[in-house]
Design brief:
- Two copies of one chain form a homodimer.
- In chain A, about 45% of the residues lie in helices and about 15% in strands.
- By secondary structure, chain A is an alpha/beta fold.
- Chain A has three domains: about 45 residues, no CATH class; about 210 residues, Rossmann fold (3-Layer(aba) Sandwich), CATH 3.40.50; about 40 residues, no CATH class.
- In chain A, strands 3-2-4-1-5-6-7 form a seven-stranded parallel β-sheet, with helices on both faces.
- In chain A, helix 1 packs across helix 2 and helix 4 packs across helix 10.
- The first copy, chain A, is globular, with a radius of gyration of 21 Å.
- At the A-B interface, helix 3, helix 5, helix 6, helix 8 and helix 11 of A face helix 3, helix 5, helix 6, helix 8 and helix 11 of B.
Chain lengths: ~300, ~300
């Protein structure tokens, strides 16, 4: 790509052109020529709220995200972007996220943009690509960004570094698991949702979550525990209202915002450094060297990157 | 530390001295002076099997690891190291792993070495520190290394990059969750364990796991589903036998081994590169720059690391 083509693409991106956005995302996702130049010239709007929605497999996150986006588009007339992050296994390229068919209802809604992103496991799952694509969305004129990711563990902690508000979704059946969790997942949540709450055990789980909750490290926010039936839209308005309230409260917490920025910057820096070193032949050389007697991984790497 | 002190420490480490090992681990864990030099001079023994034990919170992983280590020490007369990795939240330094009291029974057993490691969330959880400390253990004369980690998500995928054999532990109550998982966790497991299998639902979960299983990408291994009651030692001998069999089978799969080495190398390289750049003032400069109009994270980082 010429600098002129990039300039024109960026102009379209900043005007909210969806095809230009999709093109930029693909370039960044594949580390294609021009992607660095694009990232260095975008103007992501800082104030756009990023909502992370996470929870164990089977909690109905996709349906919830879809219902939430639909509600926001219809009742708030806001432009919403959905990024579904798929932490693919480094070995078999399988997918933890189920089919995205539930979201096809929005394909013809110009107020909702949907994109899934398969992160390739290794080198920190969510990581740089998700951060970069979120910044593209922030530059493309959306009013709110919803990021869906799966898992109970590291990927969740990572989404908390990216999102202004983190929503953790459970189902009534999650009860037994949750009682044994003392912190971790409890610590990253700004809001809890018990989805499929028309099923047995929902109230019990709500009470159980409420008793284990304590205030977030920033003051002025008590974590709500909400009930939804995403499939039929129950509780979605209240979920939006609570997210909105949290955005207001957390927006005033500059230390928290700075920490988020710092975490993102470290990820991006780490990624950029690896790219700079051009590791094309790294794997072959590594395997060859490792067969020699006295091979030491740390010395090998120190010599490579010096 | 002088080079002479390091040489002497390394000599003790390679002779299996536990105090020297503990000292080296602390130096590496804290990135203290001398840690790079130590890592570049160790001789980790390649053939030492690393067993990753993972699964959701509450599955009884610590009890299982403790029982397994005790059995191996008593019946196989092997030296076992246990590394309990704690994916701490980047915000509140909380801990997902429960108390380690269950393992205190081994404190006076010279054949078992126990260490927990709090990874600091950000920059890839498990990551470099776990890899480095595992290499210290491989240099210190253990016959087998057991790494316990918590979570369903990224941290699990990462343990699969480090371990020769990955054991995924569930409890009978995990049943409802598991049926919705199509891949991901299923793909990293070399062995499944249903722990606390004296509880209701164990056989149902075993059958459910068996029906969803397919062969691992390398041939010659069908994933077993074992039942244990770790607390009373039931099923531990069979677990060891199956792990042992898997080690034999997977040892012949050089492509898989090479992929593991490559994943580890990328992690370590990424970590080394960040260290080299000396990021001490990075956070302060980042926050200052981000307040200026037209701030762009990618341009900021590109200028920093050039």
């Amino acid at each position: 790509m010429t600098e002129q083509q990039i300039t024109s693409l960026l102009e379209q991106l900043h005007q909210g052109d969806r095809r230009a956005l999709a093109r930029c995302i693909s370039l960044v996702e594949n580390d294609s020529e021009g992607s660095d130049s694009i990232l260095r010239q975008i103007h992501p709007r800082k104030e756009i709220p990023v909502i992370g929605i996470t929870g164990p497999p089977g909690a109905g996150k996709s349906t919830l995200v879809s219902a939430l986006a639909g509600w926001i588009s219809e009742h708030q007339k806001l432009n919403v972007a959905i990024l579904a992050v798929d932490p693919t296994s480094p070995f078999t390229k399988g997918s933890l996220l189920g089919d995205r068919l539930r979201m096809t209802e929005h394909f013809n809604n110009p107020g909702i943009f949907i994109r899934s992103l398969a992160t390739r496991g290794a080198l920190g799952g969510l990581s740089a690509k998700t951060i970069e694509i979120t910044d593209l969305l922030k530059a493309a004129g959306f009013d709110m960004i919803l990021i869906e990711t799966v898992g109970v563990g590291q990927s969740e902690i990572e989404i908390a570094s990216l999102a202004d508000t983190t929503v953790v979704v459970f189902v009534p059946e999650s009860g037994d698991e949750i009682q044994t969790i003392k912190s971790g997942i409890m610590e990253i949540a700004d809001l809890f949702v018990v989805n499929k709450s028309d099923r047995e055990g929902a109230d019990k789980l709500v009470r159980s979550l409420q008793t284990t909750l304590h205030e977030r490290p920033y003051s002025g926010w008590t974590i709500p525990v909400l009930k939804t039936v995403a499939f039929s839209g129950v509780g979605i308005e209240e979920l939006f209202n609570q997210i909105n309230q949290h955005i207001q409260v957390s927006g005033k917490q500059s230390t928290h915002k700075e920490e988020l920025l710092y975490q993102r910057a470290l990820r991006v820096a780490s990624q950029q450094l690896l790219k700079k070193q051009r590791f094309e032949n790294f794997k072959a050389e590594l395997i060859e060297a490792s067969a020699l007697p006295g091979f030491n991984l740390y010395r090998f790497i120190a010599e490579k990157i010096s």
